[in-house]
Design a protein that fits this description.
Strand order of the largest sheet: 1-2-3-4-5-6-7
CATH superfamily: Ribonuclease Z/Hydroxyacylglutathione hydrolase-like
Largest sheet: 7 strands, mixed
Oligomer: single chain
Shape: globular
Structural class: alpha/beta
Order of helices and strands: EEEEHEHHEHHHEEEEEHEHHHEE
CATH topology: Metallo-beta-lactamase, Chain A
CATH class: Alpha Beta
């Protein structure tokens, strides 16, 4: 099959096809994968539930002559909406179970199934010092995104880190890769030195490491520790959730570590002796006037993660009087 980077379906490795699905964001696509088994197929990640993405799935499945009964399982690396959103739709069609880590299953319930996302987002943005007018718009946008995760899967099976998963001739091992999402799993085929890296390691762009309403503490610290653990894997080829494949594994890990070292230094420089809010730091570090509301939410979350990391490292202190104030 001849391929170009823009093709929605292409064979990316032996028995692995990449399905590139559109997204209505600045990051305008997500990579999902079809893994051929001896009898049937595994789906890894699903895309956002929008008509354009459903159409790509239908075309890709038809091109490979995959019927509903051929889908053995649907695995989710993590439950961000661009990976989780079509899991229920694909399950309704195929009857296949949806597999995810226990923590991601809990997050799916908290973020997408319970109707309290707006309230928790409001509280977090208030702590970050986001103006009320923007708070309301950001919460409304978050709820619109939540609507793109329906229907939710009804049959869910849990996968622990360390679990071995066979897909035909390939044997994958699940590794816990937190930071971007608390319970994210990546999957490593040692024989082929191939890693399904989810959103943990991306090419050219950096994964969002943010504090969200239900995040565990210190996502940046856990992310950097995860990169160190992943550096122990001998990876020839990594297949990520966005952008192109990664063939310079160790160099890319080093670049990501350096990016966050620079970002931490820039944020530390943005903190004034008299104290600043996370929103004020965000406006200094990012070009927020050019951001969509979706991008602004991510920028605030990422700013919080870096500032809280500096607090934990005792390079900053935080005062809490309803709004968090960061001081040198």
């Amino acid at each position: 099959m001849a391929t170009t980077s823009a093709e929605p379906l292409k064979q990316i490795a032996e028995d692995i096809y990449q399905v590139r699905l559109p997204l209505p964001f600045a990051l305008n696509h997500v990579n999902c994968y079809l893994l051929r088994e001896d009898q049937g197929w595994t789906i890894l990640d699903t895309g956002l539930n929008i008509p354009e993405a459903r159409a790509v799935w239908q075309t890709a499945l038809a091109a490979l002559q995959i019927g509903a009964a051929d889908i053995r399982r649907i695995i989710l690396s993590h439950v961000h909406p661009d990976h989780y959103g079509l899991a229920g739709w694909l399950q309704e069609w195929s009857g296949a179970p949806v597999l995810m880590s226990p923590r991601e299953a809990e997050l799916a319930r908290q973020l997408w199934q319970e109707n309290n996302l707006g309230q928790t987002m409001f509280h977090l943005f208030r702590q970050a010092g986001v103006p009320e007018a923007i708070e309301g718009e950001a919460i409304a946008h978050a709820e619109k995104v939540r609507q793109l995760t329906f229907p939710h899967p009804r049959r869910v099976e849990l996968v622990e880190a360390g679990t071995a998963l066979s897909t035909g001739r390939r044997q994958f091992k699940a590794f816990h890769a937190p930071g971007h999402s608390d319970g994210q799993l990546v999957f490593y085929d040692a024989a082929d030195r191939l890693l399904l890296s989810g959103d943990q390691v991306l090419l050219k762009i950096t994964p969002n490491i943010g504090i969200w309403p239900v995040s565990e503490l210190d996502p940046l610290g856990r992310y950097l520790a995860s990169l160190q653990q992943l550096s122990q894997l001998d990876v020839r080829l990594a297949l990520p959730g966005h952008r192109g494949v990664i063939t310079n594994w160790f160099e890319r890990l080093a670049e990501l570590k350096q990016h966050h070292a620079v970002r931490l230094a820039v944020m530390l420089d943005a903190v004034e002796a008299g104290g600043v809010t996370a929103y004020q730091v965000c406006n200094q570090v990012f070009n927020t006037p050019e951001f969509t509301m979706h991008e602004l939410r991510f920028a605030v979350a990422e700013t919080l993660a870096h500032l809280e990391y500096l607090v934990k490292q005792e390079r900053l202190r935080r005062e809490d009087d309803g709004v968090w104030l960061y001081r040198l």
